[in-house]
Amino acid sequence: MEFHIAIGATLPDLVRIDESLRAMDPAALADIDGATLRVATSLGAAELQFLLAAAGYPIASDQLTQLPSICCGGCSG
Fold first, then answer.
1. 73, 71, 63: which is closest to 38 by C-alpha?
2. What is the pTM (predicted TM-score) of this model?
3. What phi and psi, each to the nearest 5 degrees, are found at residue 74?
4. How confident is the model over 13-64, as pLDDT tens digits?
5. How far apart are CA 9 and CA 67, in angstroms?
6. Helical (H) or strand (E) element with 38
7. Alpha carbon 16 to chain centroid distance?
8. Structural domains in the chain, sorted by start
């Protein structure tokens, strides 16, 4: 799943978030694009919100947008 998180006044610590993500999902990716933290992960929205808070970047639910899947299913079976 891909998520976009609107960055508030405080910039996220991308290294800390990336380490936390990879501990739960080794294939996860996170990056910052302008005012958006982009995350691709197998985690659900609630799990991601909990993980971000634990990584020192708590977010409100309205900052988190789950994008529709663009998966064709071709690479996993």
1. 63
2. 0.85
3. -70, -25
4. 999 999 999 999 999 999 999 999 999 999 999 999 999 999 999 999 999 9
5. 23
6. strand 36-40
7. 12
8. 2-59 (3.30.70.100)
